[in-house]
UniProtKB/TrEMBL annotation:
Transmembrane segments: none annotated. InterPro entries: ArsR-like_HTH, AsnC-type_HTH_dom, Dimeric_a/b-barrel, Tscrpt_reg_AsnC-like, Tscrpt_reg_AsnC/Lrp_C, Tscrpt_reg_HTH_AsnC-type_CS, WH-like_DNA-bd_sf, WH_DNA-bd_sf. One of its GO terms (biological process) is response to amino acid. Residues 7-68 form the HTH asnC-type domain. CDD domains: HTH_ARSR. One of its GO terms (cellular component) is cytosol. Keywords: DNA-binding, Transcription, Transcription regulation. One of its GO terms (molecular function) is sequence-specific DNA binding. It comes from the Bacteria. Pfam families: AsnC_trans_reg (PF01037), HTH_24 (PF13412). This is Lrp/AsnC family leucine-responsive transcriptional regulator.
Length: 156
């Protein structure tokens, strides 16, 4: 399946259910979407092989893991030279505190989602690690005060 994949209503129901509960058995999923187990398993396998289902994962509670602070960090690079960009990408890929990173249009080059224990921990991360990354010219941080809508599955 490519970016223009045509999904039928059953595929969409199946994808919604898998997003809601990735641990559900094929039998349970089949029941929820109105199929028997064999065709459900076949559809799942097809969606996995096509990359529509990229992976299965558990959603962890950051607060219960002692990671009570989430920051969104805008990063500007000093240069957009290929070697600078590649070094930056490699460096952030090795930093587990950075949950996600996006190359952006507009005033800044990147937006990072970062977790830390608290403000002091984030300060250490920012000054000792983030600001020392290859090519980083400037950063601006915004801190999450409250989650209004947690991340949800894709609308399928």
């Amino acid at each position: 399946m490519d970016s223009a994949t045509q999904l039928d209503a059953t595929d969409r129901r199946l994808l919604r259910e898998v997003q809601r509960d990735g641990r559900a058995s094929v039998v349970a999923l089949a029941e929820r979407v109105g199929l028997s187990a064999t065709p459900c398993a076949r559809r799942l396998r097809r969606l996995e092989e096509a990359g529509v289902i990229a992976r299965y994962a558990a959603v962890l509670d950051a607060g219960r893991l002692g990671l009570g602070l989430t920051a969104f960090v805008q990063v500007s690079l000093a240069s957009r030279a290929e070697e600078t960009v590649e070094a930056f990408h490699a460096a952030i890929g090795r930093m587990p505190e950075i949950l996600a990173a996006w190359a952006m249009s507009g005033e800044t080059d990147y937006l990072l989602q970062v977790v830390a224990r608290d403000l002091e921990d984030y300060g250490e991360f920012a000054t000792r690690r983030l600001l020392r990354l290859p090519g980083v010219k400037d950063t601006r941080s915004a801190f999450v005060l409250r989650t209004v809508k947690p991340p949800a599955g894709l609308p399928v």
